[in-house]
Structures are given as structure tokens and as C-alpha cells.
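Exercise 7. Given the encoded structure of a 442-residue chain, write a plausible sequence.
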């Protein structure tokens, strides 16, 4: 008897049974895959879906269940499985030694607002091409930023520091690609992309710009302006927040700025203009920035498992899984960063410091493209601001007990100690501040 001759109800029931049998077999295969690997408590029915609240933090899960540097999460059928990496050596394997491709899940979130084919989510030869033409662009706009801060001093009112720093980083991102601060002519991002493409057109003897190139150019500009400016802006905000309760660190920064450059901000700017490479001599200020980024890394990446990874002398399968190296878990691990809750710039000068464990921008060829630009901006901003202004967080509501187990900053700053996710991890409520002129005497 043909299937078409069966009653409709029987056909539907048969189909449902087939789907259920397939789903059950698939679930059994998925659950069995994880039985020989380290995982948080695993449910045959739910996998790890019943732990999603904890899993979203990664760090609480790793500590609560005493997970090793590589562990697995079974999220079927809601998502593909995950390999969570909290060991810095394994993270180096997948980002530097082997450079696993980015997982397609990143494009699900980033492509809609920016456009497909952007430098953040693309892979292979296309990424290499885009990386070649998208060099960081920087210019000295901090003096303009200073004048705005001066107005806030005069008003005495609380203000959202994030709004000011966003204007600063946007100005920098749209100007010159020449690190020499004496360069006055601005080469915009679009100009640099066009220049590269015109060179290729001359070599290939093409006469017209094609539509695909124009779309590519717009996508990359949006990538840098949307994803590249707010991260640095918010790092400045969190830096100001942390330094506001560490006057001893500010004192050492000010002394270094006088010693390496010269007393007086205007004179310092002139010297910086003449010799921008002196920034490299600000070793303590550099370590302060590193410590800010340890507490507030730029963000996680997700890689696609293509081959096994090696950990503790064993090969761990990753094919078909998402691999998630979690910077915050590494940065707040007391075995890697002793006294991890302390804001301590001096930790980076110790001989036993694990440099590869500090990874706020990630590492390897797919590390944050804007890292040199970001560090340059942060160095110049702190150099030209720190000696003249004292920032204070306004309207703080400290928590009586820590909300989470991995930091106690909210005992001082309240919920402002935690980032909030918009397009990326941002400062909360714009980082409300007051500012006054410093009475520090150089």
C-alpha cells in the first residue's frame, strides 16, 4: 500500500514518530560524546542548557565546578557544543600557533549592523587583503579633549565621561595613518582604502570602480567607526574610574610624565609633537593601561574547531564545536595573576609574569586590528590629562556585598564596576563623573 493511501492521521503520526526517533538518537549521540570529557554537572535530558545562566559568565562556572583549563559544554539542541579554554597556553595554540578560523556565530551578530565581508568576521584570503589596507589611523586630538574637560571643571556639574571620550576616539579614528604627531593633513579611512584600490586598478588597467569594492569600502569604514572607537573610549572611562581611588598610582604616573617629558602640559605636547617615540619610555603608564585592560578586556572571540588541541599531554577534539577562549577567566585566575583582585601595575615588571596570559585584545594574526591605535590613544590621553585633572565618580551606590565571586570592585563602585552589553561591552550609564583641576605640584 502506498503512503498516499494511508489516512492523513496515520501519516502524521508516522512522521512524528520518525522525528522523535531521530531526535532521540541524535540526543543520545550528543550526550555520549561528552561523557569522557570534563564538564560541569551534565544532564542526559538537558545537557548543560539548565545551567545557561551560569554558563553565560564562564568564570563563575569554571570556579564553581573547579574546571580544568579546557572543558566542554553540551548545548544541543539550542546551539552547537562549546570548548571553553581558560588555559593561556591552549589559547595561544588556537590563536597564534594554528590560528583557527573565526566561528560563523560572530557574523550572526556583527554582520547585520555592519555588513557581510567585514574584517572582523571574514576569514582566509579575503581577511588578509582587508588587513593589508586597514591600518590604524591616529592623530593628536587630546588637546581639544582637554579644553572640553576644562569646561566641565568650570561648571562643576556631573557629566557622562563616555560622551566626551567617544568624540575623542571618533576624531582619532577618522584621521591620519601617520603616527608622527607633527603630520597635519588628514588621510581619512575612505581615502586610504581608495588609494589601495586605485593602485590595483592601475596594475590591472581597469577604468571603473566596481560596485563590490564600494560596498566593501563602506563596510570596513563602518567596522572601524562602530566597533573600533567605543572600545577605546570605554577603556579610558574605566581607567579614570579605577584611578580615581588610587591616588598613589596617579602620583607615580605624574612623576613619570615629568621625568620622561617635561613639567607643564603645553610643553609636553610640544615635545611629544617633536618626538612621539618618547611615548615608549612611559613604562609605568604602559603598565597602568595593561592593568586597566586586565580588569576590562576588549572582548571574547569565538573560533571554529577544525582539529584537536593539546592540553596536559592529551589531544582534545574540537571539530564541529565552538572554541571560546575566555580572557576574563584567565585574567582573574589567582594561579596566573596572584592577588588578582588588586589593581597592581607593578605585576607586569616581575620576571615570572606570564606575558602570554595577558590577552585583552587576544593574540595572533586575528588579534584586535586596532590594538596599536588603542594603546597609542590611551598613552597620549593619560599623558596629557593625568597631571592637570582629578576625576571622581559621581552618584555612586556601592554594593554591601559582592554581586559576583570574581571581583569586589562593586563594593567601591556599585554596579558601575560591571560592563553592560550594547553593540559591545560598554561602561554603564556613560560613566558619570565630576572633575576638578589638580592641586598636584610638579
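Solution.
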Amino acid at each position: 500500500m502506498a503512503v498516499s493511501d494511508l489516512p492523513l492521521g496515520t501519516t502524521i503520526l508516522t512522521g512524528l514518530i520518525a522525528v522523535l526517533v531521530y531526535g532521540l538518537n541524535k540526543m543520545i549521540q550528543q550526550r555520549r560524546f561528552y561523557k569522557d570529557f570534563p564538564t560541569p554537572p551534565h544532564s542526559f535530558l538537558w545537557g548543560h542548557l539548565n545551567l545557561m545562566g551560569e554558563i553565560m559568565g564562564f568564570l563563575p562556572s569554571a570556579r564553581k565546578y573547579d574546571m580544568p583549563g579546557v572543558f566542554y559544554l553540551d548545548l544541543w539542541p539550542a546551539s552547537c557544543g562549546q570548548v571553553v579554554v581558560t588555559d593561556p597556553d591552549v589559547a595561544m595554540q588556537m590563536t597564534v600557533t594554528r590560528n583557527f578560523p573565526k566561528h560563523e556565530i560572530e557574523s550572526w551578530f556583527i554582520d547585520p549592523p555592519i555588513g557581510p565581508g567585514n574584517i572582523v568576521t571574514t576569514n582566509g584570503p579575503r581577511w588578509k587583503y582587508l588587513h593589508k589596507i586597514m591600518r590604524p589611523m591616529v592623530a593628536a586630538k587630546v588637546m581639544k579633549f582637554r579644553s572640553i574637560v576644562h569646561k566641565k571643571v568650570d561648571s562643576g556639574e556631573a557629566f557622562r565621561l563616555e560622551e566626551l571620550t567617544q568624540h575623542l576616539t571618533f576624531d582619532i579614528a577618522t584621521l591620519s595613518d601617520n603616527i608622527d604627531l607633527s603630520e597635519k593633513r588628514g588621510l581619512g579611512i575612505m581615502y586610504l582604502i581608495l588609494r589601495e584600490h586605485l593602485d590595483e586598478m592601475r596594475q590591472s588597467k581597469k577604468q571603473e570602480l566596481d560596485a563590490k569594492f564600494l560596498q566593501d569600502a563602506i563596510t570596513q569604514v563602518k567596522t572601524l567607526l562602530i566597533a573600533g572607537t567605543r572600545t577605546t573610549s570605554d577603556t579610558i572611562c574605566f581607567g579614570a574610574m579605577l584611578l580615581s581611588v588610587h591616588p598613589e598610582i596617579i602620583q607615580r604616573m605624574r612623576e613619570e610624565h615629568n621625568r620622561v617629558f617635561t613639567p607643564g602640559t603645553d610643553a609636553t605636547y610640544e615635545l611629544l609633537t617633536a618626538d612621539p617615540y618618547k611615548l615608549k619610555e612611559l613604562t609605568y603608564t604602559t603598565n597602568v593601561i595593561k592593568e586597566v585592560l586586565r580588569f576590562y578586556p576588549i572582548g571574547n572571540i569565538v573560533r571554529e574547531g577544525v582539529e584537536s588541541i593539546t592540553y596536559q599531554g592529551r589531544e582534545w577534539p574540537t571539530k564541529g564545536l565552538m572554541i571560546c577562549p575566555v580572557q576574563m577567566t584567565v585574567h582573574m585566575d589567582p594561579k596566573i595573576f596572584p592577588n588578582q583582585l588588586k589593581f597592581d601595575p607593578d605585576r607586569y615588571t616581575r620576571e615570572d609574569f606570564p606575558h602570554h596570559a595577558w590577552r585583552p585584545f587576544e593574540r595572533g594574526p586575528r588579534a584586535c586590528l586596532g590594538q596599536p591605535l588603542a594603546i597609542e590613544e590611551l598613552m597620549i590621553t593619560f599623558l596629557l590629562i593625568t597631571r592637570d585633572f582629578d576625576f571622581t565618580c559621581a552618584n555612586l551606590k556601592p554594593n554591601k556585598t559582592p554581586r559576583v565571586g570574581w571581583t569586589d570592585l562593586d563594593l567601591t563602585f556599585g554596579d558601575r564596576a560591571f560592563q553592560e552589553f550594547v553593540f559591545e561591552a560598554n561602561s554603564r550609564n556613560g560613566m558619570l563623573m565630576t572633575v576638578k583641576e589638580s592641586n598636584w605640584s610638579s
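Remark. The chain has one domain: 80-437. Students should compare their own answers with the one above.
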